[in-house]
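Extended Data, panel c. Modelled sequence:
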Amino acid sequence: VQLVESGGGLVQPGGSLRLSCAATGINSNVFNIYNMAWYRQAPGLQRELVARTTNSRNSNYADSVKGRFTISRDNAKNTVYLQMNSLKPEDTAVYYCNAYLGRQDYWGQGTQVTVSS
């Protein structure tokens, strides 16, 4: 399984971005059973969970992004999204996509999100 993130960039505070993570090397029936998550890592800080959606379609979010970020998935496209609204400077980080199931654990290469005026 390979994960490729896209959609990062520079945005002003209060703006929005949508990150995408496309999974290749598996078909949609297999992608459907993976739990998917977004993490982020800011300079000097540990990687932290931002949001995840399980294969039973339960979702949860870090307290810092609740009400602003939304995770979703399109199984037909083998893609998971992170819609980020009302962005703040403290959301600046490299965002990573993660797919996990049992002992299987895959990561993307990351995409930079910078929130600055």
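The first helix runs from residue 28 to 31. This feature is highlighted in the accompanying rendering.
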